Amino acid sequence: MPDHRSRAHRAALVTGVSAGRTRPDQIRGGNHGLTPEQVADSQQGRVLTALREEVAERGFKEVPVAAVIRRAGVSRKTFYEHYASKEDAFVALYEHELERLFAPTLQAFAGTEAWVDRLRTALGVLLGGLANDPVAARICFIEVLAAGPKALARRSTAMATLDPLFEADNVTTAAGSSRPRAVTVGAIGYLSEVLNREIAAGRVEQLPELRAELMYTLTLPFLGPRGATRELEMDGSGADIAPDAATERSFLTAYGAAAAEMLGRVGGAMAADEPPAERVRMGMDALLRFCAEDPDAARVCVVEALSVGPAARARRQETTTRLAELFEDPLRELRPSERIARVSALALVGGFHELAFDAIDRRAVDELPSVEAVVAVARLEPGPQA
Questions:
Q1: Which CATH number characterizes residue 323's domain?
Q2: Inside any domain, residue 383
């Protein structure tokens, strides 16, 4: 299968073109004087533009290939010459859209200023970019989760593009000491989860208003409570989101009981004497069963802890880490190193949060993802050195 990424990135994705076979950017037959590569670029660009427009109108799952072909003004044969499937085309589109969002974000982060100042600027650029292009926001943070295993795998690696925002060399300047890789993974996972929640709820245009709260939570592991609180004050938003102490203490009591039950079920299921891949599946099955059997407790653990206050968010992060540690044990037998097993476990738990978040939020237990859908990101086959 050819690699479409370089061409996809060069393709001009023109929005707002009417549906139908004839498009202003469609190459006419006959002697047009273009090279085969230029023709291929034009065809790929039209396919991706058409797919973008169809996804914006219907959602990925509801888009038939025939609609993309008709809108792009290409033949079915041409479509499959460039893309093996609708998912393959979506991955190319996803990469293009994500690059348009992440490239200016990372460029804004570059410089010699203090880490927190550069992070604040980069975060503002990212949130502004998402708010200005709701279609790209939905493609990159909502539709990619439903596009299939190839898209999920690509998303897992693509999100690591933001690693430089939290790399040790950058953070040391601000915090005075480095932090383990798991903290970076957790920070990016939290950011992704919040963006997913807000975009899914139709609040994409309000994303820039979340910068202060995001800065607090993202810098908390590195700067501590005092330093993170200063980030709220820098945006003038501290008074608006400070929780009521009594309310948060009451919530933490309920959260502690729910989280203990959840962790107990997962740990108990994974204690069975089974092969490592099966233990991972059994643990995820127990986690999803907990969500289905006690949707109120699941909502406390996964959803409500994000908005109650900083202590609740910190407890939720601790629970996420403990869940990841449970899955890390069997994953060590499937990965070439402990470090890779740790990152895989965090990715697995983060994938669960994102895939199940909306269903948990709405207590829609019949819409929870399947075990296999969640563990797909973990790729449970043994690694080359396992």
A1: 1.10.357
A2: no
How many Å is the Cα radius of gyration of the chain? 22
The CA distance from 137 to 128, in Å, is 11
Among residues 228, 199, 204, the alpha carbon closest in space to that of 216 is found at 228
> Would you say residue 158 has pLDDT above 70?
yes
Neighbours of 91 (CB within 10 A): 25
Other Cβ atoms less than 10 A from the Cβ of 66: the count is 10
Cα gap 22→76, rounded to integer Å: 15
Residue 202 token pair: 């139709």
Q: Which of 358, 250, 355 is nearest to 303 (CA)?
A: 358
**Buried b or exposed e, range 114-138, using 16+ CB within 10 angstroms:** ebbebbbbbbbbbbbbbbebebbbb
What's the one-letter identity of residue 361? D
pLDDT in tens, 99-142: 999 999 999 888 788 888 888 889 999 999 999 999 999 999 99
Is residue 205 domain-resident? yes
- Report the C-alpha gap between 19 and 64 in whole angstroms: 14
pLDDT (0 to 100) of residue 8: 40
Task: Work out the number of other CB atoms within 10 angstroms of the CB of residue 9.
Answer: 12
Distance of CA 165 to the CA centre of its chain: 16
Residue ranges making up the domain that contains 75: 5-84
Show which of 84, 115, 131 is a domain's final residue: 84
CA angle in degrees (0–180, nearest 5) for 214-215-218: 80
Does residue 225 form part of some domain?
Answer: yes
Nearest to 155, CA basis, from 142, 164, 165? 142
Residues 79 and 100 both lie in one domain: no
Overall average pLDDT of the 205-229 stretch: 78
> Does an H or E element contain 199, and which?
helix 181-200
Whether 307 is covered by a domain: the verdict is: yes
The pLDDT confidence band at residue 246, using thresholds 50, 70 and 90, is: low
Structure tokens at 305: 């802890």
Contact, 359 vs 303, CB < 8 A?
no
Residues 214 and 334 reside in one and the same domain: no
pLDDT value of residue 21:
41
Residue with tokens 């004839």, as numbered in its chain: 22
Is the Cβ–Cβ distance between 300 and 258 less than 8 Å?
A: yes
What's the number of domains the chain is made of? 3
| ∠ CA 249-252-256, rounded to 5° | 150
* Chain mean pLDDT for the chain: 80
